[in-house]
């Protein structure tokens, strides 16, 4: 057990439970989950966190502490946010009173709109946007089926701090090593904003379309209409990125298609949300492209159409 690292994972959803469980099993650190719902936290404390399926390293309930009190994050080595973009602003606001300027706040959240809020927290915590491509499905509260392997990427929110990526004094080095001990391929990026845009383009091209066509990721490449919609939406998003000063440095459509192939059997998080009658992150994905396009005097009709299609299926977005 690492006597130094004491990690709090906010959000007992699929990803939060997966991260906490694998960190616990590796004995790589002390870890606890934070849940805004006190009743659910109590249930999870009684039940434990359970990983299911052939990719699960353990089928036994794991006694991971779950708290509904953000004061329990005080003194943590890092706070890791695994919550939807809709609830991230409140989670950050609830946690920051118990942080100090050196506490990394690592966000594994879809989209890029949260970067503005993270930047405003400089001086109260250490903002660290992240990207997670590990798949997981929430079967029931505290019960998760791990998906295919993925990568954890994180980096400092601004270029002024990015030079730390090659400095062993950077707290992210020990945190990334802890994730590696838990079996996650983990890296520190010196240009996390560009990589967040890469992930956004993938979400733009896949998530909403899996809802429209009610299919796993790989099936999109077999449906001519879906493939055409994908190309239009991704190209619009790439144009918005470039107009925003982001040098993507790759073929965006080829990247999205490759992710479809690698995750062919995965059910996207947005399709999982729709099937469970939960609000989706459409406004942080395709809706964010539309918003930024309008700010830049551009249009993004394919993304606007997809945004409307998802909102019609679940109006409370």
UniProtKB/TrEMBL annotation:
Residues 191-313 form the Ketopantoate reductase C-terminal domain. Residues 8-158 form the Ketopantoate reductase N-terminal domain. It comes from the Bacteria. GO terms for biological process: pantothenate biosynthetic process. Pathway: Cofactor biosynthesis; (R)-pantothenate biosynthesis; (R)-pantoate from 3-methyl-2-oxobutanoate: step 2/2. It catalyses: (R)-pantoate + NADP(+) = 2-dehydropantoate + NADPH + H(+). GO terms for cellular component: cytoplasm. NCBIfam families: apbA_panE. Catalyzes the NADPH-dependent reduction of ketopantoate into pantoic acid. Belongs to the ketopantoate reductase family. This is 2-dehydropantoate 2-reductase.
């Amino acid at each position: 057990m690492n006597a130094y690292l004491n990690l709090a994972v906010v959000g007992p959803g699929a990803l939060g439970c997966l991260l906490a469980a694998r960190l616990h099993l590796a004995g790589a650190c002390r870890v606890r989950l934070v849940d805004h719902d006190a009743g659910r936290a109590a249930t999870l404390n009684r039940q434990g966190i359970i990983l299911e399926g052939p990719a699960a390293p353990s089928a036994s309930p794991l006694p991971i502490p779950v708290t509904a009190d953000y004061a329990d994050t005080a003194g943590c080595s890092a706070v890791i946010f695994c919550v939807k973009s809709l609830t991230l602003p409140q989670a950050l606001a609830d946690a920051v009173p118990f942080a100090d300027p050196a506490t990394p706040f690592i966000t594994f959240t879809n989209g890029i709109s949260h970067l503005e809020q993270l930047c405003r927290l400089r001086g109260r915590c250490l903002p660290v946007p992240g990207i997670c491509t590990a798949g997981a499905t929430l079967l029931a509260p505290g019960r998760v089926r791990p998906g295919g392997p993925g990568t954890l990427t994180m980096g400092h929110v601004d270029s002024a701090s990015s030079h730390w990526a090659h400095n062993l004094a950077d707290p992210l080095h020990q945190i990334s090593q802890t994730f590696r001990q838990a079996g996650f391929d983990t890296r520190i990026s010196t240009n996390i904003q560009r990589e967040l845009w890469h992930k956004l383009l993938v979400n733009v091209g896949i998530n909403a379309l899996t809802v429209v066509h009610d299919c796993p990721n790989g099936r999109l490449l077999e449906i001519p209409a879906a493939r055409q919609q994908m190309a239009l939406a991704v190209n619009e998003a790439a144009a918005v990125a470039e107009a925003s000063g982001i040098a993507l440095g790759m073929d965006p459509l080829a990247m999205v298609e490759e992710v479809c192939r690698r995750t062919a059997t995965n059910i996207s998080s947005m399709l999982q949300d729709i099937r469970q009658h939960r609000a989706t992150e459409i406004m942080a994905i395709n809706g964010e492209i539309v918003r930024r396009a309008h700010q830049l005097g551009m249009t993004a009709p394919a993304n606007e159409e997809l945004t409307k299609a998802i909102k019609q299926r679940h109006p409370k977005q």
